[in-house]
Amino acid sequence: LKKIQVNVLSTFGHCGIDHLHSLLDSHKDLLIIPAISIFRILELAKIDTRWDSKKIAKRLLRTLYKTKYVNTERREFIFSLNEKKKFEKELIFALEYFNKEKFYKKFLLSIHFAYCKIKKKNFFQYKSILVHEHVPWHLSKYKEIFKSKILIILRNPHASLAGSLKSFRNTLNYVSSYNFELLIFMFLSAD
Q1: Claim: this prediction has a pTM higher than 0.70
Q2: C-alpha angle 74/79/102, rounded to 5°?
Q3: Largest CA distance in the chain
Q4: What is the predicted pLDDT for the residue at 168?
Q5: Is the predicted pLDDT of residue 102 greater than 80, yes or no?
């Protein structure tokens, strides 16, 4: 495996990160998959680092198909039963292939490898993986594990806060002090 750099695109919410993602997606040296937070998906799936490759793949796929987190248009990338089967097969292969890597690196590389296989791309042609993180909670993990460079997009903080509060209001029909504190935490949590 050649050395592939893992970098992160992140934001504080409602800053145009999806638009920037779509612009960067066409760069020939950059592999960027739909906006799936590796660390959040591991938490949602409750994946144990000691599991074998088949169990990890099955749990990941079940989580990808059954949680609200990933059932949004910007995170979808498996569109048929054939793609699901191929993704699972390639993910199991990649988890074995990258087995000498530490777990988080193995997991991240394997998801990207399997994605490339179902989209008929050559994983090894890319110089960098750009991970799309909608919130900055896990940036320190990327810096520690992958020595990642971080690209944070931020527009006017008033607009970010207003957009986030509007989203809470539309989703929950109210805005609580907890929601507001969560937004402030997002701003403070980036290193």
Answers
A1: yes
A2: 70
A3: 50
A4: 75
A5: yes
